[in-house]
Design goal:
Blueprint: H1 3-6, H2 23-26, H3 37-54, H4 62-79, H5 92-98, H6 106-111, H7 135-142
Helix pairs in contact: 3-4, 4-7
The structure holds iron/sulfur cluster (SF4).
Length: 145
């Protein structure tokens, strides 16, 4: 059996791959854009403050936290609002304008439900003990993505 065929890397889409020519695929696979340092810092500070305010904790794997913070920052740059990065939208601009999924989203504000695992309640098996994350931690844990 060809082990390479089973490698998870086989299924990964390079962030630098050009989207296929058909418009149907163009909306699904996009080149990943690196968010600005300013927006990453804004979303990092927001995440720390909101974790403290809501009594939630970051994931024991700070790589998860880092990817979500960068996803929020990317949306802040491109849409002007921190639209949740863990969902699919047919029209991101319309969703950002509507506000339901702008972080902290309504499910988080109302029920402390964060499906991105950015804000975890203490009883969650994946909750760590930190409500802080440094810029260096974000850089280090996302350097190879
Ligand atoms: S699920 Fe809600 S609270 Fe969690 S990152 Fe997305 S928008 Fe923010």
């Amino acid at each position: 059996m060809n082990l390479q065929a089973l490698s998870p890397c086989t299924f990964r889409v390079s962030p630098f791959i050009s989207p296929p020519k058909t418009s149907r695929h163009r909306s699904v696979i996009r080149a990943r854009v690196e968010p600005s340092e300013k927006s990453v810092e804004i979303m990092r500070k927001f995440s720390e403050q909101y974790a403290r305010k809501s009594g939630t904790y970051f994931c024991v794997d700070k790589g998860v936290t880092s990817v979500v913070i960068k996803g929020l920052a990317e949306h802040k740059d491109s849409l002007g609002a921190p639209l949740c990065p863990c969902r699919h939208y047919d029209d991101k601009h319309a969703e950002a304008g509507q506000g339901f999924w702008n972080c902290p989203c309504v499910p988080m504000r109302e029920r402390k439900e964060c499906h991105c695992m950015l804000f975890l309640t203490p009883d969650n098996d994946f909750a760590g003990q930190d409500q802080t994350i440094s810029t260096d931690e974000i850089k280090a844990s996302t350097a190879n993505l």
